[in-house]
Write a structure and sequence with these properties.
By secondary structure, this protein is an alpha+beta fold. It contains 18 helices and twelve strands. This is Integrase arm-type DNA-binding domain-containing protein.
Length: 429
């Protein structure tokens, strides 16, 4: 390397390596903050001409950057020049890009919080909206909460889903995926949703490694696990309903009345507890449930049998609150109120099972009402897109005959509870 020049005072020298690469040696030392004398320094620079202007780009201090590395950097700069680019501008742009990436980078926790906030209006079920952040806080944040959303990989997702949790004996540990398959499955879906949001927003370029079509090769299916098999809502046998209903009508309290109405309408607990007088037309015998309170998000018309109308007419109707089933201290009945009624009656069933599952079993096994009509009565979403496209109406008047038949069945004499009226069985009004 040839010495090229020296600066005034003979303290700084430039050594040329060729091709625009220089080593600048400054022999001037000094006294540091600790009072110790410091030796001189040396650094690399690349000098070039572009558009008639001379420019100098620093390549790093020596010996941190050795000769070989300095030559490699100079070669890259010359290649940029040959492609018509200013190497100094390219480096400055790259640094700015990295700074911007660091400034806009999000951790998994931050991404999840933004995603949850954006979805709050969609989650009509308060319990569901509460479970979303609590599940992530309990199982995901301790492991990947502070990891960049862009860096979450398959191994990280598996660490979350296969983490050790306390077993039912309270002493040993088990893997989350096998110990709590339902919780773990929902957690996986929430991880997938957050990663999908990050990909859609350009904060992540890697694939969504929480998708089941990827993880199914590494984890057993939930339905194959002993604790992962679907447990249906406990319901009453069909023929037990006529004996149960008189007992329910004798039970006191607004919870008992709400459960009775849920059975007569085959409605969900939340729909009944949130029912308002403004939604009900007693004269037309119809209950118009707004989509904002329906699981499928669509308005739903419920034909009211004479028994349902009679029940509603016995309820107090206050002007201060429009709720049909008002809690003793005001406001909506809690989610556990209807379950408590069944516990007090010592009935081995849950509100959903007794109001909807038993109704569905009765409709399928004891009547000729079409399955499509039964699904409409339950306000189920049609999974078949072709069938959904051709389903234009809601079969309201025919469903009125269905609900009248159901009310007649559960009001039938106990001695004949195992015999269904022929007209009802044929699906006739």
């Amino acid at each position: 390397m040839d010495r090229l020049a020296k600066l005034p005072g003979d303290k700084t020298r430039l050594y040329c390596d060729g091709g625009g690469l220089y080593l600048c040696v400054d022999k001037r030392g000094g006294v540091g903050p600790d009072g110790q004398r410091r030796a001189g320094s040396a650094s690399w620079m690349f000098r070039y001409m572009i558009d008639g202007n001379a420019r100098t780009m620093g390549l790093g201090a020596y010996p941190t950057v050795g000769l070989a590395k300095a030559r490699r950097k100079a070669t890259e700069a010359r290649e940029a020049l040959s492609d018509g680019h200013d190497p100094l501008d390219l480096r400055n742009a790259a640094r700015a890009s990295k700074q911007l990436a660091r400034a806009t980078a999000m951790t998994f926790r931050e991404a999840a919080e933004v995603y949850i906030a954006s979805k709050q209006d969609e989650w009509k079920n308060a319990k569901h909206a509460e479970q979303w952040p609590s599940t992530l806080k309990a199982y995901a944040y301790p492991i990947i909460g502070d990891v960049s959303i862009a860096d979450i990989d398959n191994a990280a997702v598996l660490r979350v889903l296969q983490q050790d949790v306390t077993a039912t004996d309270g002493k040993s540990t088990e893997r989350l995926w096998t110990a709590k398959p339902e919780t773990a499955s929902r957690l996986r879906g929430r991880l997938e949703a957050v990663l999908g949001w990050a990909i859609a927003g350009g904060r992540r370029t890697a694939e969504n490694c929480a998708r089941w079509d990827i993880l199914k090769h590494q984890l057993p299916a939930k339905t194959k696990l002993p604790r992962g098999r679907v447990k249906h809502h406990a319901a009453l046998p069909i023929d037990a309903m006529p004996e149960f209903m008189p007992r329910l009508r004798e039970a006191e309290g607004m919870g008992a009345r709400a459960l009775e109405f849920a059975i007569l309408t085959a409605a969900r607990s939340g729909e009944v507890r949130g029912a308002r007088w403004a939604e009900i037309d007693l004269k037309a015998k119809v209950w118009n449930v707004p989509g904002s309170r329906m699981k499928a998000g669509r308005d739903h018309r419920v034909p009211l049998s004479s028994a349902a109308v009679t029940l509603l007419q016995t309820l107090p109707r206050g002007e201060a609150n429009d709720l049909v089933f008002l809690a003793p201290k005001g406001g909506m009945l809690s989610d556990t109120t209807l379950s408590a009624v069944l516990r007090r009656m010592k009935v081995d069933a849950v509100p959903h099972g007794i109001a909807r599952s038993t109704f569905r079993d009765w409709g399928s096994e004891r009547t000729n009402f079409p399955s499509e009509m039964l699904e409409m009565a339950l306000a189920h979403t049609v999974s078949n897109k072709v069938e959904a496209a051709y389903r234009r109406g809601d079969l309201f008047e025919k469903r009125r005959a269905l609900m009248d038949a159901w009310a007649a069945f559960i009001a039938s004499p106990v001695s004949n509870s195992n015999v269904t009226d022929l007209a009802i069985a044929r699906g006739l009004p």
